[in-house]
Structure formats: structure tokens, C-alpha cells
Amino acid sequence: MAVDPQTYADLTREDLAHLLHPQYYAPDHQQPVIFDLVLDPPEATRSRVLWAARICEQKRPDRLADLAEAVPDLQFDVVGPAYESAYSQAAAARLRKPGNVKVHGGVPRERMPHFYRNAACLLCTSDVEGFPNTFLEAWSHGLPVVSLFDPD
What we know:
The protein is α/β, with parallel strands linked by helices. The chain has helices at residues 5-10, 13-20, 61-70, 86-96, 112-117, 133-140; strands spanning 48-52, 75-79, 101-105, 121-124, 145-147. Strand 4, helix 6 and strand 5 (145-147) form a beta-alpha-beta unit.
């Protein structure tokens, strides 16, 4: 959670307790929005980098492939579907070439916590995004996000 210094100074103890509570209910919605927060940072021994996105041009998997080739000591988990397009299939094939990338394909949502818990960070190689849910999910597991764009 990032809070600017003035906002932090204005927060009461109750505000902080509410923000850090394991379940946060968004007051503007009819249905509660629940994020299960796991505030422990990843273990220093983790050397896996998680990339969770569709394998398509917008997400720039070519940058991930470049990084994997340049840093063979890091292990990468790629979670997300590859589509039938020539670009998607070629990108998935390139990602499979280095021995340090495991392409898992699309996985059920309930399996995602496993990947977040076993990663050192979440990597986002996109040029443009809205505000990715994967960022919120990573942060809820105490996982830092390395991104090439600022969603702010």
C-alpha cells in the first residue's frame, strides 16, 4: 500500500486498522469486494519471476523472452493463455526455448495463489494497461511488482 505523507499524517489509528484488516470491504459497492491480504514479503531465497498475462502483442512477451535469455540464472513462470494468432504462437514458442522459462498456459483462478506464493516478484512488460488486477493480487500476497509502466 502506498500513501502520500500528508494523507498518512491525516489517518487515524482506526483508519489504519481498517486498511490493514485482512478483509477490506469497498464501501461504494453493493457487493463487498474482498482482498485477502498476506502481508509477509516473499522469502529472500525465491528466484522465480512470475509473468501473468495473455500471451499477445499488447503484453509484450518478447521483452520477457529477452530478459530470460539475458539472465539464465533466474527462473520464470509464465501463466496465461496463448491464442491462435501467429504472434501469440510464435511468442509462446520463443518463451519455451530458454531452459529457465516454464509456460503453464491458462490456469484456473483458484491456482493463482500458488504462483504468487512461489515468486520473488510479478513482472509486467506491457507498454499500456488500465489498472491490472494482477498487481492487486500480487500485493495481497506481499509480492513486489516490477512494471515497465505506471498505472497511476
